[in-house]
Design brief:
The structure holds two protein chains of two kinds. Chain A is mainly alpha-helical. The longest helix of chain B has 29 residues. Classes of the chains: A mainly alpha, B mainly alpha. Chain A: It comes from Bradyrhizobium jicamae.
Chain lengths: ~260, ~325
């Protein structure tokens, strides 16, 4: 019985799948923190719903990563027995919820990306990934609608809501670049028709985001300095705290079945 | 999740009502007809139901907090998803219960404000803390189990919108109850540490759960009118006994014991339990339970922190309406 971290053979396909699984788990976890504390009951429902979609995506992706890896890892070992340096999610998604505007901007930036991403991945030559993408795309289409509507309402609502939402956009903008970054490990999978090339999605993403942001009477920052590191385990300080909570039971009672 | 027998009698207000209509109303109830929102009803019936349904709704919403306390720490992804979905269900119950209460003429805002001001009650059980993962199993197994005992008869309640809401709520609650029992079973079949965790949770929750059925029949204030109006069909003690009798074999199956050494089965097969500490119940109801302050503070914080969001949504809706009117005028 041990509490040590698992080791993972990060072949390109395992790493690729874990990155998407970690994205879904970390954002799903963040959204689940809202449950019982949202600005209105309808949003308690909607945020939990979105969180559940993401948790479902994470579980499928982890299970697939475990199958591809072919060792004795499984969804729970991936989620509960890797430390900060082994997590591969986007920095954007681990950022704290902040106020409702910040949560919605984070959601909006990611959902508009994920929707395009899953749609493209439906054509993956990897049939499991294509099937997960087909299911996830239906969910992310709703996440886009829900978060876009809020961006417009908040941006074009009151002076306070406008200010809060603009601040959230300004603060989170630096995490956008990472969504479109590709490293050598992913390049091979893209060339093989397994993975999606995110660079090709960027113009459409920017078009959708710009149009919603402008309807909301908000503006995108001019700055193009982008922070990266999540994909290789160089995270913000926030992730460690998230994981210490997420993993507390598995770390306290090693080896138990729940 | 649950409604508690807290209502006081409003019977004395009926003298101001139209006697003939009141007689017709009672005849409809006696004939097991459903009363619908647009039907005439005595003011006291409306008031009693508004209070009961809104207390029930508040309980669902406050009840999200003790379980929500474990969403971020659930021990597996499967448990995490199930718990998040369960707490979301409770929120859904709160929403349709507020909607049912609104059919009686009070707005959700008014009802929620009364709760936040500490004027409206919610179930006493949610003022106890969830200290370990086993508490999540115990809440599903016992708290939802007790809620079902209370709510199944409410599916036949004379007020249509409440009865219909209860049918859906009960279906989801039985699912939660089985889920809770399954968590307990996993713990009881697990390590010694896990089994001890399960036993500790049962020890802490058992008496508060028995209190969920409300005061004993001999001191219960409301039952006569509610029974006559077919809002309540069984007494507090009857429901409590039914619950105990159903629960004892389940605990035996789990290999757990009750924190009540005096418990014994009588000749009728009913399980007799020791005296309940009604002083504790009274204290918790009057605001002095272990978590009363935390629960209200959490709900108030969500409400206050969310005010600017609700204002923004209203402002935006107003602007849209204005723009649409301008466009129509052009």
């Amino acid at each position: 019985m041990t509490v040590a971290n698992i080791s993972v053979s990060e072949t390109p396909l395992v790493l690729y799948t874990l990155r998407r699984a970690d994205d879904a788990l970390i954002l799903g976890h963040r959204l689940s923190e809202w449950c019982g504390h949202a600005p209105m009951l309808e949003e308690d429902m909607a945020l939990a719903n979105t969180g559940l979609d993401l948790l479902g995506q994470a579980r499928e992706l982890y299970s697939y990563a475990a199958k591809v890896e072919g060792r004795d890892n499984d969804e729970d070992k991936f989620a509960y027995l890797r430390d900060v340096r082994q997590y591969r999610n986007l920095l954007l998604l681990e950022q704290p919820n902040g106020d409702f505007a910040r949560t919605m901007v984070r959601q909006f930036f990611y959902a508009t990306f994920a929707d395009l991403y899953w749609r493209a991945m439906m054509r993956s030559s990897d049939l499991t990934l294509a099937a997960i993408a087909a299911k996830s795309e239906k969910e992310s289409a709703y996440h886009v609608r829900h978060s876009s509507e809020w961006i417009v309402r908040l941006g074009d609502g009151t002076e306070e809501s406008h200010h809060r939402t603009q601040s959230a956009i300004d603060e989170l903008w630096a995490f956008i670049g990472e969504m479109f970054a590709v490293d050598d490990s992913e390049r091979g999978l893209i060339d093989a028709g397994i993975a999606v090339d995110p660079v090709a999605l960027r113009p459409q993403w920017l078009k959708t985001v710009s149009s919603v942001v402008s309807e909301a009477t908000l503006a995108l920052p001019k700055s193009d300095w982008m922070q990266q590191g999540g994909r290789s385990g160089r995270h913000s300080e926030h992730l460690g705290h998230l994981l210490s909570e997420l993993q507390s039971m598995q770390r306290t009672f090693p080896g138990a079945t729940w | 999740m649950y409604t508690q027998a807290l209502n006081t009698s409003d019977g004395d207000e009926r003298h101001v009502e139209d006697a003939e209509r009141a007689t017709q109303f009672q005849a409809r109830i006696d004939a097991d007809e459903r009363i619908e929102p647009n039907d005439w009803m005595p003011a006291a019936y409306r008031k009693t139901l508004t209070r009961q349904i809104s207390q029930h709704a508040h309980s669902e919403i406050v009840g999200m907090l003790p379980e929500g306390n474990w969403i971020t720490r659930a021990p597996s992804l499967r448990r995490k998803a199930a718990l998040l979905a369960k707490v979301q269900d409770e929120c859904g119950h709160g929403l349709y219960l507020y909607a049912a209460a609104e059919t009686l003429g009070s707005s959700r805002e008014e009802l929620v404000d009364a709760m936040l001001a500490g004027k409206a009650k919610y179930s006493s059980i949610f003022n106890y803390p969830t200290l370990t993962w086993a508490d999540i199993g115990t809440i599903g197994w016992l708290v939802d189990g007790a809620a079902i005992m209370n709510q199944i008869p409410l599916c036949r309640c004379s007020y249509g919108p409440y009865a219909r809401a209860m049918i859906r709520v009960c279906k989801e609650e039985s699912f939660h109850q089985r889920q809770g029992f399954e968590i307990m079973l996993t713990l009881c079949r697990g390590t010694a540490e896990q089994k001890a965790m399960a036993q500790d949770a049962l020890n802490r929750w058992w008496w508060p759960v028995l209190m969920m059925f409300g005061p004993p029949d001999q001191v219960s204030q409301h039952s006569d009118t509610s029974t006559k109006w077919k809002i309540k069909r069984f007494s507090n003690d009857e429901l409590r006994q039914k619950f105990v009798d159903a629960t004892v074999p389940q605990a035996q199956f789990l290999g757990l014991t009750f924190p009540d050494p005096g418990m014994k089965q009588n000749a009728n097969g009913n399980w007799e339990y020791s005296a309940i500490d009604w002083e504790e119940f009274k204290q918790v109801l009057s605001g002095n339970g272990p978590c009363n302050r935390d629960r209200l503070a959490a709900r108030r914080k969500a409400h206050d922190d969310g005010a600017w969001v609700r204002e923004a949504a209203m402002a935006y809706a107003g602007k849209r309406k204005q723009r649409a009117a301008l466009q129509a005028a052009e």
